[in-house]
Amino acid sequence: MAFATKNRQLLSRIATNDRPGENSPYFEGWKAYDSNPFHPTQNPDGVIQMGLAENQLCFDLIKKWILKNPQASICTAEGVDKFKDISIFQDYHGQKEFREAVAKFMGRVGGNMVTFDPNRIVMSGGATGANETVMFCLADPGDAFLVPSPYYPAFLRDLRWRTGLEIVPVDCNSSNNFRITRAALEEAYERAQRLNINVKGVIIANPSNPLGTTLDRETMRSLVSFINEKNIHLVCDEIYAASVFSSPRFISVAEIIQDMDCNRDLIHIVYSLSKDMGFPGFRVGIVYSFNDLVVHCARKMSSFGLVSSQTQYLLASMLSDEEFVENFLKESSQRLAKRHRVFTHGLEQVGISCLKGNAGLFSWMDMRPLLKEQTVEGEMELWRVIVNEVKLNVSPGSSFQCSEPGWFRVCFANMDDEIVEIALDRIGKFVRQGKEEDVAPKKPKRWQKKLHYLFCCCR
Amino acid sequence: MGLPSRKATCNSHGQDSSYFLGWQEYEKNPYDEVKNPKGIIQMGLAENQLSFDLLESWLAKNPDSAGFKRDGKSIFRELALFQDYHGLPAFKKALVDFMAEIRGNKVTFDPNHIILTAGATSANETLIFCLAEQGDAFLLPTPYYPGFDRDLKWRTEVEIVPIQCTSSNRFQITESALEEAYQQAQKKNLRVKGVLVTNPSNPLGTTMTRDELDLLINFITDKEIHLISDEIYSGTVFSSPAFVSIMEVLKDRNHENTEVWDRVHIVYSLSKDLGLPGFRVGAIYSNDPIVVAAATKMSSFGLVSSQTQYLLSAMLSDKKFTKEYISKNHRRLQKRQSKLVLGLEKAGISCLKSNAGLFCWVDMRHLLSSNTFEAEMELWKKIVYNVKLNISPGSSCHCTEPGWFRVCFANMSENTLKLAMQRLKLFVSSITINSQSHQEFKNSRRKARTNWVFRLSFQSFHDREQEER
User: Locate the Aminotransferase class I/classII large domain: which residues (chain A) (predicted)?
Assistant: First the structure.
């Protein structure tokens, strides 16, 4: 209708621009899955979701705890006495027990090398809310943050959309296993300067999404010294901190700055329980800053995304249970390690290698040999075949702003063992079929495209 | 470079206002019947604590939703993983049905047009982000909820221009006030994007009349701007006139699927009606698909916990429960409001006749030493520090007339309310009423030195315009 256009002009630019970036293949793959989701019995030919970084491996442990602790719910007979007090609690400082439990948990996850102060724990609507809030606190519209690529696609929305900020990518590539180098940081910084872009800081994810690796001590120290010298901020998104399943261990930036001379007002951490505990639905995001002004500002802003008091109460109880936490973290780590081993081994068997990972819920798969051409278009063509024909939703590297075509993030912790096998089986068939077709007589024209990819597949 | 943003260092969060300062004083010395009987009684907090027993009894009868179960089977995993920003379908359906029920089922809402947000705080901010940007303004009738200064302006950088309402007509919105506000905005080079009203009103405690709603629709049609109707208190209307939603008026005027239909948006929440502010359940309802799409994406920054969505979807789907709750809640609110009004009367204080909300708009103009905001602050400080009642001064709500205060009644026990009224009565009667004439008083009065003594002319006390009781 005509007035739709007129009304559209009456909306803000934010409402009508493309910054939420939901047209990228990262989200397109999800749509393909949503329209044809795999189910072992009801839809065995459906698309298997491997684009969703969720940790579904330890719900049995949590369920057991919940059954043993009915008082942690304010709705059960054992806990309903607390219902009124908790349901009216909307103080943006958050429940004291919740903050203490989260601070202790973060300390434990950091290997007990650091103690976190509960008074610096600020809530937010998931890490999504936390990252946006931190940006609002640290930068003004038009300012920029440096972000090492490849990076989590939704940063484009979370860091930029409503804040009006810009992202300047720091180029990392496979030549050194995608490590962040001082040279790359300097280059990105200078590039921004030349374009008259005011850089307010660097934001990293450690462990990295999509790489599935922890940052080593040297890189962390180099980062801290870089931002310190430039007097800009460092935001560390540590959302996967407890998803580290093999060495080297996770080192929080909080630990690094303990024996470094640096301006602590520049250091900020974002955390969440969505990945480590597997609770994305509960929207528990945390902003932890060493800068008092930022803590105060973020706390006021947390009004826009507080954690439900019902949830705070449950999790305060759960995370204060030290025995449970110890066991959970140990089991989770072991199960992730096993799953990672099975998956990467399965890929190796068919000649697909991954970046050596020690953390996260995914692998960074090297499909460069399968590309028709080493371009983004080549990557997208391969991706479409994988989604539409192999029926696996994996995430193409270009959606992570990776500068090298051919890398894919594939998640492995959001499914049962059986489905992992099915997925590996499908990949295996796809690769083997390619090898067979390589030596087979000429196929009809409609297979030519597919043949072209498979030709490059030999290892 | 290493400095935080302007937002971090500026004052637009508005949290230095007296509205929040009063809370801080309360935090330092909170009343407790047993542990601190001389502490400050919190009457600045618009919470509904009257009907928890009804909620608790529902929980006792419905152990499944309490324990993450459906039909006896655990759905914990499903809930813990559910982060779809479209929200739990069962919850959205239950919520829109509840909203319709509150409106006497005179309007129905489509669950596909509702967006869940972390409280009305987030809903209002999100809507403003969708409808306006820096350089734009929204018109708001005064007095208004102090939190709007933060929610609508802080991170969005949008301005608020007040629509001045006065006691001369019970603070109702007039056409001339709307026009004047619009002109004011233009003078400041601000582009007016819409009007935002709270209906029922906070802090007035009154529902908007049909005439006012018609006026608003005419105005936004003429100016081609938006209307946001924050209906967070819609379930607290305890006496006539009945609540009339803007949607109902649009329907009655056959405005469905017209241009203006798409420019009216509703904000809702369960924080006041159900008394669950801690659960952070807010909602935006819009007929404009672009607004729905944009707001849905933005809700990623503040989704409602799936644990909470599940519990409340079960609760609100229980129609027997919602019917009982709505009617009992109304009765209790009415009873409690009457107690406050009576208590105030006994202290010689009147308030605006109200039929909704969790507070009264109290007229203490006659207690001011002068008709100024300084005098209002002076009086407010006495009430907070000496009478030990935290109430909200009208200036914090941007009221144009000094002497009005918002006093909450639903966040305490009956005994506590009784005590608060006793304290107030004592305070007022300790004021020495001077029987000399007003002129004599003006010539001879000396400035009050102690906290407890005013000198007021008996004449001027009675000359004050008395509001309806």
Answer: 48-427
